[in-house]
Design brief:
Rossmann fold, elongated, 3 domains, six-stranded mixed β-sheet, alpha/beta
Length: about 550
């Protein structure tokens, strides 16, 4: 089972929110006071009511303290509607997708044949709460018992956690307590545990009986009709006390209670210890408000990786003001909350506008970036890639793909951080030499890149290689003779060293100087020459890295 979508009606600033489609990681972005947090809190309220209903279907009938703790009408019902609708309800509509096995269980319990999707409405006015299955007019649904069985089944399939933006030590301890309570409850059916608690009950009860006998005589002085007194400790409350009286000590160099740690540690603890099971038959939803709150940028990057990993098996919905947490893989999983509306993102520019991200004109539409090492690489690939692939050609023409160079492998991390901050997807092409490999490894360690979005210019038989090693030398050899008087059809240009080392040997063997400035000039001459005729650029025996790059870019454009 999973949550497919939900919508909110009349909760705080949200008078209506169109259906928010849920994916494994749904991101709500928007300016302050637009209602992002209220959407999360409405979802949290609905899920809490459903979980409580699963424990006791009568818990919210009539005035109830637990309900009032979750919903206060004067605070949570839209102020603009309170006068015209003095008994108005806030409601959340949720749509769940059921598996074939779950549909079969419901069919066996109720005789009702459902399709794959089940709508559920949770509504409350603070005095009472209702859970209903709307828009189901079949005769079988006229039987309230069937409705209750379906609702009870769904409610018992929910795991939900809401982590607010203000994360104190009590928030962290609450999450840990819930984890402990859930796990310790499993030992209560073990015989050894039952025997131990029975012994505790007997020892405690003997003392309570003695106290009762001591107070009955003084009490009868004032109330002669009293004949007997019993004092008991409720078993459920005793068990809850055993589960919840905890202290959390964190040793990050100095063992300290969590209450005395800084806001960053409290925040990370609350986010890290999420009470989520690995049961695939349950709705596992984590709602997180501003995960970047209180965190250093490095900790925020690490947390992003953790949340992304969590989203592989569970549904995560979060609010953020940080470009770091924007979903770059699938733009429509980002939801812009603005002017009371929740709208899926279509273009990266919409996110940049709502977050106030400033970018230069040539990046305003670019959603995808190919980063290469040098300007000469960019000159060639700007002409070569459109020739090799129509999708890439179209993306470059409409500015949704931009090729940029970093001016040396050492600048890679800086450039990646820049493009991450302006919400771009990116792929990196690096030389397969010491500098390129080191830059790629550093970017991975910093969480700025992965093996998936880095391609190295590997050439068969060469321990080190660069993009020029993939070129057909016949396409540029005459240009080198014309410009520098150097012939590369010599033994010095053969071998398995990388291109620039072999080119240096050619220059020196023919009485020419070689250095960084000459190397840069030679590469530019080669790039400008072969860009004129990209059809004959690649060496058929050494082009595999470029073909792999084309496939990677095409996948990114999907």
């Amino acid at each position: 089972m999973k949550l497919v979508n939900f919508s909110v009606l009349n909760f705080r600033s949200i008078t209506t929110a169109p259906k928010i489609q849920m994916s494994n990681m749904t991101v709500l972005v928007g300016k302050n006071n637009e209602g992002k947090s209220n959407i999360l809190r409405a979802l949290s309220m609905a899920m809490d009511i459903m979980k409580s209903y699963a424990n006791n279907p009568r818990i919210f009938s009539g005035s109830n303290r637990l309900l009032r703790n979750r919903y206060v009408w004067d605070r949570d019902y839209p102020i603009s509607l309170q006068e015209s609708k003095p008994n108005g309800y806030s409601s959340v509509d949720l749509t769940f997708e059921l598996t074939e096995e779950e549909l079969q269980i419901i069919r066996e319990r109720t005789g009702i044949r459902l399709n794959s999707y089940l709508p559920v409405r949770v509504s409350t006015n603070g005095e009472e709460a209702k859970i209903d299955i709307p828009k189901r007019g079949t005769p079988a649904f006229s039987n309230n018992e069937n409705k209750l069985r379906i609702i009870d089944f769904v409610c018992n399939k929910i795991d939900f956690n809401f982590i607010p933006a203000i994360r104190t030590d009590s928030d962290a301890i609450r999450v840990i307590e819930e984890l402990i309570e859930k796990e310790l409850s499993t030992v209560e059916d073990i015989p050894e545990y039952a025997t131990a608690t029975a012994t505790i009950d007997r020892l405690q009860q003997s003392i309570l009986n003695r106290i009762a006998s001591q107070i009955i005589n003084p009490l009868q002085t004032f109330l002669p009709s009293v004949s007997e007194i019993h004092i008991n400790i409720q078993k459920e409350k005793r068990r809850a006390a055993l589960r919840r009286n905890i202290e959390v000590i964190i040793n990050d160099g100095a063992p300290t209670p969590i209450q005395l740690k800084g806001d960053g540690i409290k925040s990370l603890t609350a986010l890290a210890l999420l009470n989520i099971t690995n049961q695939t038959d349950r709705v596992s939803v984590i709602a997180i408000e501003e995960p970047e709150s209180h965190l250093h940028p490095e900790s925020a990057r690490q947390l992003f990786k953790t949340i992304s990993a969590l989203a592989e098996n569970h549904q995560v919905i979060l609010t953020t003001h940080s470009p770091l947490f924007v979903n770059r893989i699938n733009l429509r999983e980002n939801i812009i909350v603005h002017n009371g509306k929740a709208t899926p993102v279509k273009k990266i520019k919409e996110i940049r506008d709502i977050l106030g991200t400033l970018v230069s004109d040539n990046l305003i539409n670019a959603e995808n970036i190919l980063l290469v090492e040098g300007e000469d690489d960019k000159i060639v690939l700007d002409k070569l890639l459109p020739y090799m692939n129509d999708k890439i050609k179209k993306a470059i023409q409409n500015n949704t793909l931009l090729i940029d160079y970093i001016g040396g492998a050492g600048n890679l991390s800086y450039k990646l951080a820049l493009y991450r901050n302006i919400q771009c997807r990116y792929h990196v092409l690096l030389d397969n030499d010491d500098a390129g490999r080191r830059a790629g490894q550093d970017a991975e360690v910093q969480g700025l890149a992965t093996t998936r979005n880095i391609t190295y210019t590997l050439c068969n038989g060469s321990p080190n290689a660069e993009l020029e090693d993939c070129y057909n030398k016949n396409s540029y050899q005459q240009a080198l003779i014309d410009e520098f008087g150097v012939n590369i059809c010599v033994s010095e240009f053969r071998g398995n060293n990388k291109w620039s080392d072999r080119m240096a040997s050619c220059f020196r063997s023919q009485g020419k100087q070689w250095g960084d400035a000459i190397e840069k000039k030679v590469k530019m001459v080669v790039a400008n020459t072969i860009a004129l005729d990209p059809e004959q650029v690649l060496n058929p025996h050494k082009r595999s890295s470029v073909d792999a790059l084309v496939a990677a870019i095409e996948a990114m454009l999907q």
